[in-house]
Amino acid sequence: GYPVGFAATATWFSRRRSSAMALITIGGGIGGIFAVVVGQLVEAFGWRQALHFMAVFMLTVGVVIAMNVRSRPEGHPEPMDGHRFTDEMQKVRALPSPSWGVPIVQALTSRSFIMMSLGVVALSFATNAVVVHQIPYLESDLGISKSVAASSVAVFAIVSIVGRLGIGVLADRYSKRAMLAVTAVLTAVGIAVLAVASSFAVAMVGILIIAPAFGGLLPVRPAILADYFGTRYFGTINGIAMLATTTGGALGPWVVGRVVDVTGRYEEGWVISAAMAVLAIPLLLLSTPPTALM
Questions:
Q1: DSSP state, 197?
Q2: How does DSSP classify residue 174?
Q3: Tell me, what's the pLDDT at 93?
Q4: Helix H segments across 174-233?
């Protein structure tokens, strides 16, 4: 999954780390598009046989690819970030500096990690609420048919790929922390549009704003952790940080669903989600580099 791929990628890239991790996440976006294919398999063969097809695919294609993924060996002579040796580099053959890393306890108790984790909890609350409730919202509040509502998920997945790549590239050129804040701003704006939408067209505008923000969060969050705390203990630190994403991602859909059960509509749930995205902005901006630990 992502955590293992991120851990390996972080050791091969430095200045292009966000871009590289963005490429790792594209599979998730393509997977969203394949939801249409899976649906057709279920219709044609039933859900049991469809699961068998997917299992065979994962055991063949997935395992073969995974066996060729490895972390950068200590002292490996190849330059970082996919660069090739120039003539001068071939003469010098200078080895890259050894991997470094902030000890796990120091990293987890640092202000940078705590602020970022809280920001990611708030932002994941908002984004996952949309991911889970997108189809029910379009059906119940706007009267859209199930097939049309389902097609919006494929659109969301495609646009999220643009966000993964675009924001990933920008994060390598500009402040990763600022890019995380940008994803929170876009999420807040997009969910605010959903809260006031009265037509499918307006709702799709909101979805198209949220999708690239959702995609951009995926590669930039682990990339900034590697920048802040190094790669030696990155797998453990990133795995623990994933708890923040999981926690927010679980709370958001549940809270919004509970609000809909009480009020009978999504407007109030979207307002809460937008407020959580706004809350994430200062938290993410306060997650400054832990210079004292570097």
A1: -
A2: S
A3: 44
A4: 176-196, 200-229
How far apart are alpha carbons 132 and 130 in whole angstroms?
6
Q: How far, CA to CA in Å, does 271 sit from each of 113, 129, 222, 246?
A: 27, 11, 28, 21
- Mean pLDDT in runs of 10 for the chain (294 residues)? 69 76 75 69 81 84 71 62 54 49 88 92 94 90 83 86 88 90 95 92 94 90 88 86 89 94 92 95 91 64
Contacts with 276 (C-beta within 8 Å, 6 or more apart), sequence order: 122, 123, 125, 126, 248, 252
Alpha carbon dihedral 136, 141, 144, 147, in 10-degree steps, equals 0
| Whether 169 contacts 19, CB under 8 Å | yes
**CA–CA distance, 214 with 226 (Å, rounded to integer):** 20
Pairwise CA distance, residues 201 & 56, whole Å:
39
| HSE of 122, CA atoms in CB hemisphere, 13 A | 25
Answer for the pair 232, 167: CB distance below 8 angstroms, yes or no: no
And the tokens for 167? 């924001």
Cα–Cα dist 275/294, whole Å: 34
Taken in order 43, 47, 48, 49, the sign of the CA dihedral is positive
Is residue 199 helix, strand or coil? Answer: coil
> Model pTM?
0.80
Query: What per-residue confidence (pLDDT) applies to 80?
Result: 64
State whether residue 206 is helix, strand or coil.
helix
Tokens, residue 44: 């044609």
CA distance linking residue 51 with residue 192, whole number of Å: 37
